[in-house]
Specification:
Layout (H helix, E strand, L loop, with lengths): L14 H51 L4 E5 L5 E4 L1 H7 L3 H4 L11 H12 L8 E10 L5 E13 L2 E11 L1 H56 L4 H32 L7 E3 L1 H18 L2 E7 L6 E3 L1 H17 L5 E10 L4 E8 L29 H11 L3 E6 L5 E7 L3
Parallel strand pairs: 7-9
Antiparallel strand pairs: 1-2, 1-5, 3-4, 4-5, 6-8, 9-10, 10-12, 11-12
Helix pairs in contact: 5-6, 5-7, 7-8, 8-9
Length: 419
């Protein structure tokens, strides 16, 4: 039995006793084989379960480690126990400096920590003990504030808090882009105000002439009424005078209305823009400047030219910039061709401004759309006009091109997709 015998019988051997012993031996052998089979099955299943568990844990660990968002986890004492690679990059700490070393409150300014805890306990950002897309600041390894967007939840088991988990997204790049957009809007408005100043000087003369003529007609009518009794001839003359006064005042009203529309600082408003209307308004506001500069403007627009989708005010600013640049390029006078055309091959609406000035040198041509680059003499421009045109065209999914032969003028082409 010590050597693992299943049973024993004593002599003399009895058949019944032998059968009983053999029966017990067989049962013992069968049970042992079954136990071996069950043990092997359990071992295989345990190995498979262990492998799957290891694979699941490894996947979850890799998922946390490689997440684009920073993931930070705390235990029930708020000691940091999870700190992934994105958190290391975000705050400049290594895992060894943080894991089981720092508590959550050491990563925030006291004021930011207090507000975060208040919002986490309230239900304004996703519900009680939850935060969703809340903005705050973390403190990095240099004790500098880092703007972040955080989602978080308090972990609990059987009604007891046993940890917290936070997901952080770095907002520094987003804030940089917001500042860049704000700067672009400021530059756009600054350039518009410069154009407005140039327009105003011209419009003062443009309005002064019809107002002076209108006053003369009114004084003449007043003098006639005071000195003479009205007759049929006077009434006919008054009608003619009043028609002239009405026309001149209407022209002044249109000029002022266009000027106010151009000067108004308003958010971009995309709508259908008729190129013919756009060019006509630009001509009305710039015609006196053209006359004073001894410049002849030739205007043509293709019939049936399709509308474009854009902001009328910004597109008007583009055309003004190109027209004013053309005027500046011809101090002794010349000709500007202003054209609206449709390019069938490329399916683009074109606005072309061509002058007969001195042109642009080959060295300057590649740089003319860069901010603050100017070919004008000091005091006559800061180099914002063409860069503003370039930015507006990009915003409208369009483009601007320049062509020039030195000594033979320059051509600027605005390209816009049809509506």
């Amino acid at each position: 039995l010590r050597l693992d015998a299943s049973d024993f019988i004593t002599k003399p051997i009895n058949d019944d006793a032998l059968h009983v012993a053999l029966k017990r031996a067989r049962r013992r052998y069968t049970v042992r084989k079954q136990l071996q089979s069950h043990t092997a099955l359990l071992e295989r299943e345990n190995a498979q379960t262990t492998e799957e568990l290891i694979r699941t844990i490894s996947f979850q660990r890799d998922l946390i480690a490689s997440s684009m968002d920073g993931i930070l986890g705390c235990d029930e004492k708020e000691i940091v126990v999870i700190f992934n690679q994105s958190m290391e990059k975000l705050l400049g700490y290594s895992k060894n400096q943080v894991l089981n070393q720092l508590s959550f409150d050491q990563l925030l300014d006291p004021g930011d920590e207090r507000r975060l805890r208040e919002e986490l306990a309230a239900d304004g950002y996703g519900g009680e003990n939850r935060l969703f897309l809340y903005e705050t600041n973390l403190l990095n390894s240099r004790n500098e504030k880092v703007p972040v967007q955080v989602s978080a939840t308090v972990l609990s088991a059987q009604g007891q808090k046993n940890g917290m988990v936070f997901f952080f997204r770095d907002l520094r790049e987003i804030h940089r882009l917001e500042r860049e957009i704000s700067d672009q809007a400021r530059i756009l408005h600054q350039d518009k105000m410069m154009s407005l100043g140039r327009l105003s000087a011209s419009v003062v003369h443009e309005i002064n002439n019809p107002i002076f003529g209108t006053l003369n007609y009114l004084h003449l009518m007043k003098r006639i009424i005071e000195r003479e009794s009205l007759n049929e001839r006077h009434i006919d003359r008054f009608k003619r005078y009043l028609n002239l006064v009405e026309d001149e005042i209407s022209r002044c009203s249109q000029i002022i209305s266009n000027l106010l529309t151009f000067s108004r600082k308003s958010p971009p408003a995309l709508a259908q823009v008729q190129i013919n209307d756009l060019l006509d308004r630009c001509i009305v506001l710039s015609q006196h400047k053209l006359k004073l500069s001894n410049i002849n403007l030739v205007h043509s627009t293709d019939p049936g030219l399709p509308a474009v989708l854009g902001d009328f005010n910004q597109l008007q600013q583009c055309v003004f910039n190109l027209v004013f640049n053309a005027i500046d390029a011809m101090p002794d006078g010349g000709t500007i061709n202003l054209e609206g055309r449709y390019d069938n091959d490329r399916e683009k609406v074109l606005i072309i401004v061509e002058d007969s000035g001195a042109g642009i040198s080959e060295d300057d041509l590649p740089n003319i759309f860069e901010p603050f680059f100017s070919t004008k003499d000091e005091g006559h421009g800061v180099g914002l006009g063409l860069s503003t045109v370039y930015g507006i065209m990009e915003h409208h999914n369009g483009a601007v091109h320049a062509e020039s032969i030195p000594g033979k003028g320059a051509t600027f082409i605005l390209e816009l997709p049809p509506f």
